[in-house]
Amino acid sequence: MRDGYDVVIIGGAVIGSSVAYFLTANPDFDGSVLIIERDSSFAQASTSLSSSSIRNQFSNPINVQISQFGTQFIRDFAEVMEVDGDKPDLGFHEGGYLFLAQTDTQVQILRENHAVQKSLGADVVLWDPGQIKTAFPHLRVDDLQLTSYGQSGEGWFSNTGLMNGFRNKARAQGADYLIDEVVDILRSKDQITGVALKSGRSIACGTLVNASGPRAAQTAAMAGLTIPVEPRKRSIFVFDCATTPEGSATVNRGRLPLMIDPSGTFCRPEGQYFLAGTVPADDPMVDWDDFEPRHEEFDRIWMDLANRSEAFEAVKLVNFWAGHYAFNTLDHNVIAGSHNKVRNFLFANGFSGHGLQQSPAIGRGISEWITYGEFRTLDLSEIGYDRVVRNEPFLEKAVI
Q1: Where are the alpha helices (DSSP H) in the chain?
Q2: pLDDT-based confidence at 395, cuts 50/70/90?
Q3: Is 127 helix (H, G, I), strand (E, B) or coil?
Q4: Where is the FAD dependent oxidoreductase domain (predicted)?
Q5: From residue 74, how far is each of 23, 79, 88, 378 by CA, in Å?
Q6: Domain extent for 169
Q7: For the domain that residue 174 is a member of, what is the CATH number?
Q8: Are the C-beta atoms of 147 and 101 separated by less than 8 Å?
Q9: Within 10 Å of residue 197's Cβ, how many Cβ atoms?
């Protein structure tokens, strides 16, 4: 282990490892990379506790493009991430997303979002209630006006498979990983010079990347900086159905999509079971070590789903857990790029539940900024730190 690195990344889950992969894969980058991770098990990482899905159905063009790149990257993942003959299979299940609209406001949002998505080539269609019922006969549609359905390019996959694939390939390409905890960030005026570790070591660096998920504000504070990111709890429930509707669709080989009910509850197949969650009625910041599920949310989820489909009236809970969103309180969008004054401090934070699906494009973008001093493939400047300084939200209407 060296005493100094060109790039030090704080956080070794999917975001940090994606940055490390893209840096070490780029022949134009010839520097050294160190990833520092506090928890070798990743047991409480947002990556590990995610519902592991990707969609192209966003309202902002940059978010659509970020996910379109993510979709193709996930499809190609096994070949790209091969190490010593091992090709990691993410089990990408392209079931699609299904947004249901009940009110005039929801309908307007779906139509506006759809125009953006189609302009960028996303495979998304708008259906009326009759078309919905034909495609997904188990659903009750009498209260609906419109739906938006992703026919391809959306679905779910292995969360830890994505993270471990990035990690293994980055290591094979020369990145170093260190299990330790950053307790201080060393700064000289407007320049980060290194990090101090819990083990007592200090490591110098040329560029520092904050990829510490829900702890992003803690990391920034060690450098005397601020970022509007805090941990918000999301509970996930897995249940069995007495009579499963999976296989009943008349589209996509009978497979059901990830459905977002107008109530805010979502549900998707998970093997022989179903996985579901909802937007909390009360959504405060929580302690970084609080991972106790909000069990009362399942009653609301069950009610919402039973109202939507007879198939969900008789269910049995089989598993549950809680994870943390790295929640951007300004606008629920990722902050990617350098600080406006401390230019060698880079943010990859505040994904607000979209980190797993956005990790390929953000990792590539951050690596480009480090290598070239600019974004070259997708211009991520709209989601940079400058908007935090200006206190100007970059709003995304399609937030789950």
Answers
A1: 14-25, 61-75, 77-80, 104-119, 129-135, 159-172, 216-222, 297-308, 355-372, 386-390
A2: confident
A3: strand
A4: 6-369
A5: 18, 10, 11, 18
A6: 4-66+159-230+330-390
A7: 3.50.50.60
A8: yes
A9: 17
Distances, alpha carbon 2 to alpha carbons 8, 33, 213, 397, in Å: 11, 10, 25, 45
**Residue 396, helix vs strand vs coil:** coil
User: If DSSP codes are grouped into helix, strand and coil, which group holds residue 291?
Assistant: coil
The 10 Å Cβ neighbour count of residue 98 is: 26
Q: What is the pLDDT of residues 218-272, one digit of tens each?
A: 999 999 999 999 999 999 999 999 999 999 999 999 999 999 999 999 999 999 9
**What pLDDT digit, counting tens, does each position of 214-232 carry?**
999 999 999 999 999 999 9
Residue tagged 């980190």 (tokens): 355
The answer on 28 and 127 residing in a single domain is no
Q: How many residues does the chain have?
A: 400
Q: Within its chain, how far is the Cα of 320 from the centroid?
A: 19
Angstrom CA distances, 185 to 27, 202, 307, stand at: 29, 9, 52
Instruction: Tell me which residue of 6, 98, 21, 41 sits closest to 360, measured CA to CA.
Output: 21
Q: List C-alpha distances in Å: 197 to 185, 219, 220, 364.
A: 9, 12, 15, 27
Query: 3 and 146 in contact (C-beta within 8 Å)?
Result: no
Tally of domains within the chain = 2
